[in-house]
């Protein structure tokens, strides 16, 4: 009896242990089915067309980005550094298995303004954010806005017009950039070109005999009023005006203020030369072709956003700089409409001359120049002179 009693006790203990084991197994099974449930949102995001959640197997892409201008003195470079780079990094981190590491080379760290195109072509820069005005022969079409003076003074309008033109002639612009082993991504416009001087300008005749500086393609705008055009650059502008080398500059408000030209030239005159979409971002083609399609997609989408933000920022900075110059005692005036008309009418037909030059290069020059003008008109701008290009 004692033995049977002991055996009964042992059976009871075994039974209890079995119950415990079964219970633990059931709990474990419930826990195992929770994992797929937690992963369901990622699967459903992929099925709906959104980017899949990045895996642990991540790769780093290191890109050298920069140009000739510093990152904090121009709207187009500032937006590139503050938005374009950071937004691409954020989206790649969230939507792909790639992390972007940027090596910044603004302000001529790797290439000066006239060297940037070649630097990106050769891979010294992976991404170029620079002005095209220093390559006006190689990038003739990208400098086309310079050859249509008195276009819209609104950076937003001219940037949209430039984009419409590129979209109308995609193969031509793709071939242009591929010649230099690059893919064009986005425009970054200047502000509105006007006139800053160390003497008052109340009429066109007030310019007679005065030396006025400009850069490259803007020099022909000064073929009026008997002024004396002088080729120069912003880096030497302050000292040159201060020492009398010349007496004024054709420059937009923001750069006039940031380079402190108003300290030596306290007269700012709105003439209406126009804003110019002649800056922007491109990427080395070898680098581009190695990027995963998911990363290429992000680059393209962020570049489109950059284009809008860059134009809006250029406009805003011009408005703010104008107010700052006024507060600093600068005399800000508008050239009388009659004198603006005299100025425009006294200029040769620059657009026709340059469209013919583009045609000689093998481009449909007349069509492209007219397309840019037509795009601005469609966006609501009225030209003070009807440029006839045929």
| Main CATH class of the largest domain | Alpha Beta
Q: What is the level-2 CATH architecture name of the largest domain?
A: 3-Layer(aba) Sandwich
How many domains, in number, for the residues?
2
Over the alpha carbons, how many angstroms does the gyration radius reach?
A: 31 Å
Runs with pLDDT <50, length 5+?
Answer: 1-52
- Helix and strand run: HEHEHEHHEEEEHEHEEHHEHHH
Helix content: 40-55%
Which percent band covers the strand fraction? 15-25%
- How many strand segments? 11
- Give the structural class: alpha/beta
Overall pLDDT confidence: 89
Shape: globular
Q: Classify the fold: give the CATH topology of the largest domain.
A: D-Maltodextrin-Binding Protein, domain 2
Number of helices: 12
Q: Can you list the strand order of the major beta sheet?
A: 7-6-8-5-9-11
Feature tags:
single chain, 390 residues, alpha/beta, D-Maltodextrin-Binding Protein, domain 2, 6-stranded mixed β-sheet, 5-stranded mixed β-sheet, 12 helices, 11 strands, 47% helix, disordered N terminus
């Amino acid at each position: 009896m004692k033995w049977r009693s002991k055996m009964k006790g042992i059976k009871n203990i075994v039974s209890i242990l079995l119950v415990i084991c079964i219970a633990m197994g059931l709990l474990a099974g419930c826990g195992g089915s929770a994992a797929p449930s937690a992963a369901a949102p990622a699967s459903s995001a992929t099925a709906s067309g959104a980017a899949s959640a990045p895996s642990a197997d991540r790769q780093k892409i290191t890109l050298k980005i920069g140009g000739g201008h510093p990152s904090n003195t121009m709207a187009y470079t500032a937006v590139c550094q503050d938005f374009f780079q950071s937004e691409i990094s954020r989206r790649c981190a969230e939507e792909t298995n790639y992390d972007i590491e940027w090596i910044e080379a603004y302000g001529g760290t790797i290439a000066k303004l006239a060297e940037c195109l070649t630097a990106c072509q050769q891979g010294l820069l992976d991404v170029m954010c620079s002005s095209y005005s220093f390559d006006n022969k190689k990038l003739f079409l990208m400098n086309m806005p310079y050859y249509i003076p008195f276009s819209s003074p609104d950076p937003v309008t001219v940037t949209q017009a430039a984009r419409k033109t590129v979209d109308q002639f995609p193969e031509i612009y793709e071939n242009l950039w591929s010649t230099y082993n690059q893919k064009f991504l986005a425009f970054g416009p200047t502000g509105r070109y006007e006139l800053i001087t160390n003497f008052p300008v109340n009429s066109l005749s007030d310019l007679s005999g005065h030396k006025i500086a400009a850069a490259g393609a803007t020099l022909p705008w000064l073929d009026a009023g008997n002024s004396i055009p002088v080729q120069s650059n912003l880096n030497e502008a302050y000292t040159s005006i201060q020492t009398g080398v010349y007496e004024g500059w054709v420059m937009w408000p923001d750069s006039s203020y940031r380079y402190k030209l108003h300290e030596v030239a306290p007269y700012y005159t709105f003439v209406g030369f126009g804003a110019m979409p002649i800056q922007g971002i491109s990427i080395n083609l070898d680098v581009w072709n190695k990027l995963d399609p998911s990363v290429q997609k992000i680059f393209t989408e962020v570049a489109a956003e950059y284009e809008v933000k860059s134009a809006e920022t250029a406009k805003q900075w011009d408005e703010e700089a104008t107010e700052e110059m006024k507060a600093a005692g600068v005399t800000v005036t508008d050239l009388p409409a009659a004198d603006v008309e005299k100025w425009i009418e006294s200029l040769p037909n620059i657009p026709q001359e340059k469209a013919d030059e583009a045609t000689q290069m093998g481009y449909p020059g007349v069509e492209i120049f007219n397309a840019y003008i037509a795009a601005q008109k469609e966006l609501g701008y009225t030209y003070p002179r009807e440029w006839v290009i045929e």
